[in-house]
Write a structure and sequence with these properties.
The complex is a heterodimer of chains A (113) and B (112).
Chain A: E1 4-7, E2 10-13, E3 19-25, E4 31-37, E5 43-50, E6 53-57, E7 64-70, E8 73-78, E9 87-94, E10 102-104, E11 108-112
Parallel strand pairs in A: 2-11
Antiparallel strand pairs in A: 1-3, 3-8, 4-5, 4-9, 5-6, 7-8, 9-10, 9-11
Chain B: E1 9-13, E2 18-23, E3 33-38, E4 45-50, E5 53-56, E6 61-64, E7 70-75, E8 84-94, E9 97-100, E10 106-111
Parallel strand pairs in B: 1-10
Antiparallel strand pairs in B: 2-7, 3-4, 3-8, 5-6, 6-7, 8-9, 8-10
Classes of the chains: A mainly beta (113), B mainly beta (112).
């Protein structure tokens, strides 16, 4: 009965490849997010969707493309992976777009070689 | 720009009370203050939230002065399992939408 789940948990890939990370929440929340946590542990928001509508799009390379097929799912596709993309990617959800209380997934550890 | 400022790290002995202070000088009238806890290899977890004065739950207390330009998370009688990074956040409104900014957090190390 995991609230926010992500797959895969670990992802090791070569530079230049394209990969996707999937996120699902079973909390009935309207809003979902993607965060990137780099090696220095700084947690940065990347995207946010509210009821399948993109509401936050931070300064992220356009190689990153979120997709929300329904409000319970928010996937992240990354094209042409670079070494600097190595990080932990967290998905989160909140009841609504006010965002004060977010529920995070376990993270996807991406290593680009 | 970071919305909050916290100490980078703190050490405490088991059984002591720990207070972590966060500065948020530009907090807006409608902003709430929220604290999260992150253990290694896990996602952040909500601890407590407040608007003003004092809030207490089973995990922690949150003290917010009248000017709301700072807040203090208080963890009573910490144990080794409280070793984690603690993030202070304030909501940030922009064009009708709000985004939360996580700062660098405070790494708390509890010592036996």
């Amino acid at each position: 009965d995991t609230a926010v789940s992500q797959t895969p948990k670990y992802l090791v890939t070569q530079m230049g490849n394209d990969k996707s990370i999937k996120c699902e929440q079973n909390l009935g929340h309207d809003t979902m997010y993607w965060y990137k946590q780099d090696s220095k542990k700084f947690l940065k928001i990347m995207f946010s969707y509210n009821n399948k509508e993109l509401i936050i799009n931070e300064t992220v390379p356009n190689r990153f493309s979120p997709k929300s097929p329904d409000k319970a799912h928010l996937n992240l596709h990354i094209n042409s992976l670079e070494l600097g993309d190595s990080a932990v990617y967290f998905c989160a959800s909140s009841q609504d777009r006010k965002q004060e209380t977010q529920y995070f997934g376990p993270g996807t550890r991406l290593l680009v070689l | 720009l970071a919305k909050t400022t916290q100490p980078i790290s703190m050490d405490s002995y088991e059984g002591q009370e720990v207070n972590i202070t966060c500065s948020h000088n530009n907090i807006a009238t409608n902003d709430y203050i929220t604290w999260y806890q992150q253990f290694p290899s896990q996602g952040p977890r909500f601890i407590i939230q407040g608007y003003k004065t004092k809030v207490t739950n089973e995990v922690a207390s949150l003290f917010i002065p009248a000017d709301r330009k700072s807040s203090t998370l208080s963890l009573p009688r910490v144990s080794l399992s409280d070793t984690a990074v603690y993030y202070c956040l304030v909501a940030e409104g922009s064009g009708g939408y709000q985004k939360v900014t996580f700062g660098t957090g405070t790494k708390l190390q509890v010592i036996p």
